[in-house]
Please model this.
Amino acid sequence: MRVFPRSCVAFLAVALFLTSRNARAVEPDPLLPADCQLVVGLRVRQLAEAALFKTHLAPLVKEIKPSENYLTLVLGALNIDPWTDIDVALLAGPALPEGDKTLLIFRGRFDLAKRKGADALAKDRLVSVRVHKEGERLVYEFKPKEADGSPAYLCFLDKETVVAARARALISEAIARADAKKPAPLAKPMLDLLAGVDGKATAWIAALATEPLKESLSGSGEAQRIADALQTMRGSVTVGDSLSVDGVIQSTNAKAAAEIRKFAEGVKGILILAAMNRDKQWGPVGADLLGTLKIANDKGTVSVKGQVTGEQIDKSIAAAKKKE
Model:
């Protein structure tokens, strides 16, 4: 059982892979690790309050039974409701997320009085719970049901900030940064990436194309050339009355950018067919969104933009229902 399931990160990466616009840039969180190569952000409250979400997605979310993964158990045990307590959730770490090197940062409003003690937490289906003191703060250590599972750590830095990680050292570093009131010096490539991400976006991603990431994407022929040419990826999804996607992939040269655009067009076609065949109601909606994506390349840059309105979604759903 993982604290940071790769499937979740993969889903976000695919959804945001080609997604950013130069509006007011997203502000780098002061708690981001200095060596982070990937930052994924989600404005939970903004999403929950978006008209499109309330109309179409909130009913579906209510029907979803929370999975028994480690993170949901820990948040539940500490009386943290993601939809009401968390404003922004951030994941930061290596370009290929690894549990013991990835930090979760939650910004919101947390009632510290509701925190449970170790004895109470141990009753919430978690095999082992320990509480450590680090200065004036409590660091919760959770161990999963599996005997060989590694622990996870969580700390309330204050009534507006919670951090979680699989490695206690990451928690200690976050505490030190919070106490010093001085952010870690992020590398210039990451600062440049974040400067290009729309600060009003509902969700965003900024990733450096490190060698491990390139190796995971590489293959033979075209795939290998594309992987070798990748430099950075940044993007955003904004949800309000409509849903828009906007992003950029930077490669080393114009030829590589053209290959990436061609590859992306092929993936787009496959995803449209898959969406249409997967779900009778939401398949057409997904296909419509994918159909709006405009993929272009200029020199070494590939850009992707698309938007679907609430009215278009209503029409797609109505059309799908008529076919039933």
Notes: Confidence is low (pLDDT under 50) at residues 1-22. Residues 24 and 200 are 7 Å apart (CA to CA). The longest strand covers residues 230-239.
